[in-house]
Design brief:
With 119 residues, this protein is an alpha+beta fold. It is built from two helices and four strands.
Length: 119
């Protein structure tokens, strides 16, 4: 990456080991596509008062040439996001899928449909 990885925590103290997990996942994205300009990760604890486990939201912004890819994993979608590591894993998997789509489009591997014949 041309810019350093930025990690921010909102409404919570950084848990031990989470920083290393995020850095390892970001390095995996960079091994997949080496032209990533920058990466910003925001991890947010959604609710301070709760009856069950805290829900986490993870947002990733990847700057690549000509575009910024944004991935957000909302806790309302999955109760599994009570586990911070699951939320981080899912967000980085979604970021990798978006990055794969971006790379395919840059290479021209995206399927295009022929124009309908005109009568």
């Amino acid at each position: 990456m041309q810019e350093p990885l930025r990690i921010a925590f909102r409404n919570m103290e950084p848990p031990i080991g989470v920083d290393a997990t995020v850095r390892a996942n970001a390095a995996e994205l960079e091994r997949f596509y080496d032209r990533i300009i920058g990466c910003s990760v925001v991890i947010e604890a959604r609710h301070r008062s709760h009856h069950q486990g805290n829900l986490y939201r993870v947002r990733i912004e990847l700057s690549v040439p000509d575009r910024t890819l944004v991935v957000g994993r909302e806790p309302a979608e999955h109760r599994a996001y009570e586990d911070l590591h699951v939320a981080i894993r899912d967000a980085f998997e979604a970021a990798k899928r978006q990055l794969q789509d971006y790379v395919r489009a840059k290479r021209g591997d995206v399927k295009t449909h022929a124009a309908a014949p005109q009568a």
